[in-house]
Amino acid sequence: MNRYFIAIVFSLAIVTMISCKSRKSASGAAEDGSTAFTKIAEGNYCGVETASTMLIRSQEEWKSLWEKVTANRSPVPTLPEVNFDENLILAVFSGTQNSGGHTIEIQRVAMEKGKYQVNVLQTKPGSGCFVTDVLTQPYYIASVAKGKILEAEFSTETVATPCK
After folding, report:
1. What is the DSSP string of 39-95?
2. Is residue 38 classed as helix, strand or coil in its secondary structure?
3. What percentage of the chain reaches a pLDDT higher than 90?
């Protein structure tokens, strides 16, 4: 019984820490200055073969990008709805990688210097990792509130995943 009590207390402590870290001020920004964003799609296989970052401002741009992202899928997934009067889309692509074990993810978005500052984390397998021998194209797509900001600057950190 004591073990269960400790597990419950530990779980509550984790939930409390997570909720404190993501608290937002009245302006909609988190206390650390970050801006909320919502993941639309992510994966390891898409039709975008070149490493790139994009800020999508219109339905036409979004439809064109989605066609590229889903070019290698059948049936093609439905285009996710985005209200471009209120939102923009941030998209990051690793380009074609020669194995599995690669990922890309938007970690943080903040409004600074009149632009969205987008922090991206790209991971690759470390030396000695066993990975699938297949071409991958990692990607991550998110929406963010439009506001008055119509520009974005992306910075990418690449780290190797340690393997045993």
Report:
1. EEEEES--S--S-EEEEE-SHHHHHHHHHHHTTT-SSPPPPPP--TTTEEEEEEE--
2. strand
3. 69
